Amino acid sequence: MTLNWDVTRKSIGTLSIWLGTGALFAPRAMTRVLGVDQRASSNDVALPLLVRLIAARNIAMGAALLVTPVPQARRTTEVTLLLTALDGAAVLVGRRGGDVADRSVGLSMTVLGLAAAGAAHWHRR
């Protein structure tokens, strides 16, 4: 395992846990920061539950990245990157429907681009 990959794995894991924790305890605030329309983030009764479900997934994947034994950690990282890509696709679909702001698309595409660059870098080795 290279030091570069280990640092990236731990960074992704830690970030996933922090974002998941924020969304778990402040789901409406987190959605507003990410660009969800204020009316939806204030009035939608299902929104906190859905955000907390995603938050739990992020916390679990982040923890898995941090504690998985080295031979399995690469696969866990790949699964996390796949979930990030699916999240990015969901944001794009939401933007097309007018449900999310441009900044949400920009942020999601930045995260997706960094994740894709990391995956490409690992697979070249």
Would you kindly provide a written description of the structure presented here, covering whatever features stand out?
The chain has 125 residues and is mainly alpha-helical. Helices cover 86% and strands 0% of the residues. The chain has six helices and no strands. The longest helix has 27 residues, at 70-96.
Rg, rounded, reads 15 Å
Global structural class: mainly alpha
User: Which spans of ≥5 residues are poorly predicted at pLDDT below 50?
Assistant: none
* Amino- and carboxy-terminal Cα gap: 11 Å
Count helical runs: 6
**Share of residues in strands:** under 5%
Q: Quick one: overall form?
A: globular
- SSE sequence, one letter per element: HHHHHH
Quaternary state of this entry equals single chain
User: How many strands, what sense, and barrel or not for the largest sheet?
Assistant: none
Number of strands: 0
Q: Which range best describes the helical content: under 10%, 10-25%, 25-40%, 40-55%, 55-70% or over 70%? A: over 70%
Mean pLDDT: 79
